[in-house]
Amino acid sequence: MIWFGGQKPDLAAMTSIGGKSMPGLLGIEFIDVGEDWVSARMPVDHRTHQPFGRLHGGASVALAETVASMGGAMTLDPAKQVTVGMEINANHIRPAMSGYVTAVAKAESLGRSTQIWTIRITDDAGKLICLSRITLAVIAVA
């Protein structure tokens, strides 16, 4: 298991951390965690649509970065280190119009100074909406 302290992270606490910032504004909610992955969902609604009624690509990227960054942070001692995004890419595969999208972030590499995560975002039917990869910097807490 990759999680700091050998315990799976508290999903409600992970959701609460972003409650008053962008994740909260977008309605992102952490829903599950495994040995080396974490998942969150986000509504596809007026907050996350682009002007033509489809899920905004930027909202997908915000979800991808949120779930992976929080996952990365949960692998570290929070008194000493946090993770921040260094580089992210996203391939938008198909549109989503309503319902929820779910992101599953899987740790690919957990180094001392960087982490790499792959994020798959699917719709309610399980269809792939977006495939993303992020490199996170591991930085000292100020």
Keywords:
single chain; 142 residues; alpha+beta; six-stranded antiparallel beta sheet; 3 helices; 6 strands; 40% strand
Biggest sheet, strands in spatial order?
1-2-4-5-6-3
Helix content: 10-25%
Tally the helices: 3
CATH architecture: Roll
CATH homologous superfamily designation: Hotdog Thioesterase
The H-and-E topology, N to C, reads as HHEEHEEEE
Unreliable stretches covering 5 or more consecutive residues: none
Structure description:
The model has no long low-confidence stretch (mean pLDDT 97). This protein is of the alpha+beta class and 142 residues long. It is built from 3 helices and 6 strands. A 6-stranded antiparallel beta sheet has the order 1-2-4-5-6-3. The chain has one domain: Hotdog Thioesterase (Thiol Ester Dehydrase, Chain A, Roll).
How would you sum up this structure in a few lines?
The protein has one domain: Hotdog Thioesterase (Thiol Ester Dehydrase, Chain A). Helices cover 20% and strands 40% of the residues.
Walk me through the topology.
Blueprint: H1 11-17, H2 22-26, E1 29-33, E2 37-43, H3 57-73, E3 81-92, E4 100-110, E5 114-122, E6 128-140
Antiparallel strand pairs: 1-2, 2-4, 3-6, 4-5, 5-6
